Amino acid sequence: RAVLRKASALEYKIQRRALRKEDFINYIQYEVNLLELIKKRRARIGYSFKKDEIEHSILHRVHSLFNRATGKWKDDVQLWLSHVAFCKQWNAKHQLSKVFSTMLAIHSNKPALWIMAAKWEMETRLSSESARHLFLRALRFHPECPKLYQEYFRMELMHAEKQRKEKKEFEQAKMDLGEFNYSEEILNGEMARIVYRDASQKIKGVEFQLAVLSIAKLFDFTQDLQKEILESLQARHADDPLTWDYMARRELELGSLQPTESSTKQKKVSEMAQREERCCAVFDEAVGAVPTEDMWKCYITFCLERYNRKTNSEELKQKRLERTLSVFSKAHESSLLSEALYKQWLQLLLDSSLSEKAVEVAEAATRRFSQSVETWQMRLQVLIQLKRDDVTQCFEEAIKHVKLKGTLPLWTLWVEWSEGTNSKEDTEALYQRSLHATTPAESVTMKEMYLDWTYRSSGYKKVKRLFTSLCENRPFSLDFFRKMIQIEKEQESCKMLHLREYYERALREFGSTNTDLWLDYIKEELSHPQGKPENCGSIHWRAMKMLQGDLVEDFVSKYTLLQTGHL
User: Fold this and answer.
1) Cβ-count burial of 16 within 10 angstroms (0-12 exposed, 13-18 middle, 19+ buried)?
2) Which residues contact 287 (CB under 8 A, 6 or more apart)?
3) According to the 3-state scheme, what is the secondary structure of 298-328?
4) By C-alpha distance, which of 252, 260, 256, 254 is closest to 306?
């Protein structure tokens, strides 16, 4: 009776004149949950009768609900995918075939849906012909989609592999195939070759060639095809860094030139070192042939990957480190080292305790990227870490080179360093200087830091005087006022008079946009020993006048919660 009542209520909702998508989703979800429950009950009591009357009628109802919903809201891809998932879960192959057919007629502009449908035909229905037909239709809509060609290429190779396995099974069983014959061309992946050739005429990028090559490598009968792709790659994209990167890394997989009989640890290490040397020889040739920043980046990335690999051989680790540092130096000499790679080089030098070299490299980086805040920051951090004497001089140089806007990270680093190193007077002078040297928006952060440092170093009286003087120059941040309120609250003789002053100053700046500030002010009046609860009414009235738009409603609901003790 409960099921009937619930189903009737849901059915009424989808019979309205103004239909809503949520009603269909809720009805479908209810029916799916019901199916799951029936399945569990059947398993628990071992009852397997009357499936046609129970499950099949519910399944039929769910499919018809999905059909109505997708018919009404055709553009909702998620709805279609939910129907696909439901069909897969309940093994409704015939229905799923219809769903894919209708969905692809409407959403033919989405390659991912074509791939999903073809994959299902190939892997679930074991129909290579249907999958091929879908891919060919998809390519008529998307003739230059790399992903479609890759998946079509993979499908043809899977089909060839499947046929090879079938043939092998028949030969082992010594069965007479009669008139049925396996085509040698298909068995050797000729269809995939045709797909590749067609695709390579339309898609020019090196990434596509490499993706297709990586797919071909998954199959053990594609040596000739791999060779053709590789030759095409070298002929068409000889100047592309990715081609050289692939050719170099390929040396790692080819194995040692002299295969060793026994595999002792020492021999394994020397073999790995030989392979890496061959890779580097290819990379050296590459940076000569294609002297670009991207090519050096590929070379350095390879060296760093090898260096970061775990090995028990100290000799191999040292060799990798020397090689990496050497490549960094060569790239630097060629003036083809990017800003990000300078950072990695510095980190490697510091980790290897080569501090003098790190200082040189940091200086060279700031010469090359003199406008970059990040590069100066990097150099300064190196000098601070090594506790050098010329830190102040370097800060002055950095501020001189970098444009006014964006110098905030340098000032924050400078004052943080000064707090721990210089005298109070020097640090205070630096804070004062930073307020004038940064843009108004950036000076807000410096004000907060200045206030915090003054309280930590000189105490309450000094910070109160500083707060009053800083309040003369806008702009401010809300945290600036909250910091001062927090400082006042930490005092033993916390005066409500001072708190009111800080709240009033903050409300002048942020009263129209911040509801929490008003509520905190009201709470303070209610909870502070010197507070005046009778002021709450006037604060509430001012808040209602000052707040803008939806914030008034938000304030009223929060104020009500505060009055009832829920906030």
Assistant:
1) exposed
2) 295, 296, 299, 330, 331, 334
3) HHHHHHHHHHHCCCCCHHHHHHHHHHHHHHH
4) 252
3-class DSSP state for residue 92?
coil
Residues 6 or more apart in contact with residue 49 via CB below 8 angstroms: none
- Whether 70 and 102 have beta carbons less than 8 Å apart is answered as yes
**CA 144 to each of CA 138, 319, 460: distance values in angstroms, whole numbers, following the listed order:** 11, 45, 70
Residues 326-354: pLDDT tens digits?
A: 999 999 999 999 999 999 999 999 999 89
pLDDT digits (tens, 9 = 90+) for 430-467: 999 999 888 888 899 999 999 999 999 999 999 999 99
Q: Looking at this protein, which amino acid is placed at residue 269?
A: V
C-alpha distance from residue 17 to each of 20, 23, 460 (Å): 10, 13, 70
Asked whether the beta carbons of 275 and 252 are under 8 A apart, the reply is yes
Q: What is the DSSP letter of 369?
A: T
CA distances (Å), origin 109, targets 105, 117, 121, 259, 269: 9, 14, 20, 52, 52
How far is Cα 279 from Cα 356, in angstroms, rounded to an integer?
30
Q: Per residue in 479-498, pLDDT tens?
A: 999 999 999 999 988 899 99
Tokens standing for residue 419: 């707090």
The 3-state secondary structure of 148-164, one letter per residue: HHHHHHHHHHHHHHHHH
pTM of the model: 0.78
What is the distance between the alpha carbons of residues 162 and 154, in angstroms, rounded to a whole number? 12
Q: Could you tell me where the DSSP H helices lie in 73-183?
A: 77-89, 93-106, 111-123, 128-141, 146-173
Cβ count near 356 (within 10 Å): 9
CA distance 251 to 236: 21
Residue 351 tokens read as 């980790």
Cis peptide before 475 (omega within 30 of 0): yes
- Amino acid identity at 130: S
DSSP 174: T
Q: What CA–CA distance (Å, rounded) separates 436 from 443? A: 8
Closest alpha carbon to 373 in 430, 411, 333, 320: 411
Residue 257 φ then ψ, to 5°: -70, -40
- Round to the nearest angstrom and report the end-to-end CA distance of the chain: 44
Q: By C-alpha distance, which of 564, 548, 544, 542 is closest to 556? A: 544
Give the CA distances from residue 480 to residues 235, 355, 467, 471, in Å, rounded to whole numbers and listed in that order: 63, 39, 9, 10
383-390 contacts at long range (C-beta below 8 A, 24 or more positions apart): 383/359, 384/413, 384/417, 385/350, 386/355, 386/358, 386/359, 388/359
